Every structure is written in C-alpha cells, then in structure tokens.
Amino acid sequence: MNSDAVWDATRRMRIGLAEAVFCEGKTTEQIVGICHEAVDGDHPILLTRLDKDAFAALPQALQARLDYEEISRTAILGALAAPAEAARIAVVTAGTSDKGVAREAVRTLALYGEACTEIVDVGVAGLWRLLERIEEIKRHSVVIMVAGMDGAIFSVLGGQVPGAVIAVPTSTGYGVSNKGETALHSALASCAPGVLATNIDNGYGAACAALRILRAQSPE
User: Fold this and answer.
1) Distance between CA 146 and CA 93 in Å, rounded?
2) How far is CA 8 from CA 80, 171, 206, in A?
3) One domain, residues 108 and 148
4) Closest CA to 73 of 198, 166, 165, 204
5) For residue 36, how many C-alpha atoms fall within 13 Å in the half-sphere facing its CB?
6) Domain assignment of residue 177, yes or no
7) Could you read off the pLDDT of 24-67 as tens digits, one per residue?
8) What is the pLDDT of residue 140?
9) According to the model, what pLDDT value does residue 39 have?
10) DSSP conformational letter for 43
11) Is 80 exceeded by the pLDDT of residue 90?
C-alpha cells in the first residue's frame, strides 16, 4: 500500500527514538498506508495529532489494533512493555486545560517504557497548589512543565527544583495569550537558569527531550 511517505526504519537504532506518525493534515489512506509500512513487529508505533474524527474514519480492523486516547489525540499500534517501577520524570500542568498536551508527553514516555508522575492543576494563580506538591516534584530527574496563559510557572518551578525543567507552552488562553506565544516567550525569557523550552503544544517533543536527558545520565 502506497502512503506517499518514506518510513525511517533505522531512526531508533541511530538515536534511540523511533519515528512517530504525525497525523494532522494526512488523509485516511495515508495514515493507513504508513501504519501498514511501519509495522515491524519489534516495537510499538506512536500516532500523534489523531483527532477523534480522523480515528473514526480509519478502517475498523485498524481501529481495533490501536490503543486510542482522545484527550491527547494519540494512538499506539502494538503492545507496550511494562513501565519501569520508579518514575524519574514528572509531567506537571498549570491548569486542567493543559492536560491534553501533558498526556501527549505521558503517552510518548509510555511507548519507551518510562514511568512518570502526573501532577495536574498547580498553576501559580493559586501558588499554594504548587507548594503543596513541590517536594514530590523535586524527587524527579526531569520535570516537564506544561502551561499556557502567561507561562509564569516556568520561572517559578525552574527556581525551585534541581532537575532538568522542560517548559511546554500551550495554546491555552485568550486575547494577548496569542495561541501560546506569550507562554513561549515567557519560557524563552525565563530568569531561572537552565530552563529549556519546546514549541507550542509539543508534548511529544518534550518527552523525547526528557528521554535523551535520562539516557545521557545513564547510557546503556
């Protein structure tokens, strides 16, 4: 089946991260074709930005093989390995509206058998919410911080935890939040040293960055 795509079958061997299927903008036929070409039987495959209508349009036989999650717009083709018992990564959201992007990160980590701790709705508008969980967050080697609006929590968290902080600005907000650009600028201009930033709504990219950091700490 021709999908018009050239699957990068050796990416996982080169960099430790397999190619994912970015579904937004692809036709049903292209998604089906890519899934058909990509399956090698050894590793599960991640599909991102697969909204519920696009999923519903897939053939029933393929739907039955996919582990689909609507909030993150992700699907996983193939069986996942059991996650590690100890969570080295925390995925934290400022608000509940940021959860979809956070779940994209969580699902990406699951693909590689990496457990994580999910902490939701600790934005700085009620700073006590973050402070109640800060000791728990500090125990993780990497923190993926997902926030929209003003993105103020990136600097606050970056000044409180010793591990790597990956800021993920989201398009949550309205007006001058400008579809996530304000949060992105906040992350890039953070006064907390060493805070890293991904593109807007890029939970997948944040998870991949976290995996690279962990592998650098303990190379196989």
Assistant:
1) 5
2) 20, 30, 21
3) yes
4) 204
5) 14
6) yes
7) 999 999 999 888 877 655 678 899 999 999 999 999 999 999 99
8) 95
9) 67
10) S
11) yes
Q: Among 77, 97, 130, which residue terminates a domain?
A: 77
Residue 63 gets the label, from left (phi > 0), alpha (psi -120 to 50) or beta, of: alpha
The overall pTM is greater than 0.85: yes
> Which tokens go with 28?
């049903």
Residues 208 and 100 in one domain: yes
Q: What is the sign, positive or negative, of the torsion defined by CA atoms of 19, 85, 87, 213? A: negative
Instruction: State the maximum Cα–Cα separation within the chain, in Å, rounded to a whole number.
Output: 55
Q: What is the pLDDT of residues 111-144, one digit of tens each?
A: 998 999 999 999 988 999 999 999 999 999 999 9
Q: Which helix (H) or strand (E) holds 204?
A: helix 203-217
Strand, helix or coil for residue 119: strand
CA distance 113 to 52: 25
**Tokens matching residue 52:** 């519920």
Q: Residue 102: how many CA atoms within 13 Å on its side-chain side?
A: 24
pLDDT-derived band at 148 (thresholds 50, 70, 90) equals: very high
Amino acid at 176: V
The Cα–Cα gap between 150 and 152 comes to 5
